[in-house]
Amino acid sequence: MNHLYLERHDTENNMHRFYQMFVTPGLFDDWSLIKEWGRVGSPGTVRKEWFDTQEDAIVAGKKLCAAKCKKGYYAIRTGK
Q1: Side-chain half-sphere CA neighbours of 26 within 13 A
Q2: Angle at Cα 23 formed by Cα 17 and Cα 9, nearest 5°?
Q3: For position 80, what pLDDT does the model report?
Q4: Given 11, 31, 57, 73, which residue has the most CB atoms within 10 angstroms?
Q5: Distance between CA 8 and CA 74 in Å, rounded?
Q6: CA-based diameter of the chain, in Å?
Q7: Could you tell me which residues are beta bridge partners of residue 3?
Q8: Residue range 10-34, pLDDT digits in tens
Q9: How many CB atoms lie within 10 A of CB 35?
Q10: Which helix (H) or strand (E) holds 19?
């Protein structure tokens, strides 16, 4: 999982949200999970979380993805 894009739509409540995640290497042999979320079509809020290994960042991303899917988000497109 290098990139994951999720969306959630609820037209009755006018809710059209996205959540995306990227796993990228840092400058000091570390890895980051970059998370962005917000309303579809608008710029989102971005946060970074740092990890010692790529595997740790991927595991954190997968856990977050599972939690989002339980709330009604679904994958639109994914990276490698």
Answers
A1: 15
A2: 10
A3: 47
A4: 57
A5: 7
A6: 46
A7: 22
A8: 999 999 999 999 999 999 999 999 9
A9: 19
A10: strand 15-25
Q: What is the pLDDT of residue 17?
A: 96
Residue from 65, 79, 13, 59 nearest 37 by CA: 65
Amino acid at position 22, single letter:
F
DSSP-derived letter for residue 58 is H
Domain spans, the chain: 3-78
Fold adopted by 3-78 = q64v53_bacfr protein fold (2.20.140)
Which is nearest to 7 in space by CA: 32, 34, 42, 56?
Answer: 42
* Residue reference for tokens 């960042």: 57
Query: Could you read off the pLDDT of 36-79 as tens digits, one per residue?
Result: 999 999 999 999 999 999 999 999 999 999 999 999 999 986 54
CA 5, chain centre distance (Å): 6
Strand-strand pairing, 3-10 and 74-78: antiparallel
User: H helices then E strands: how many in the chain?
Assistant: 1, 5
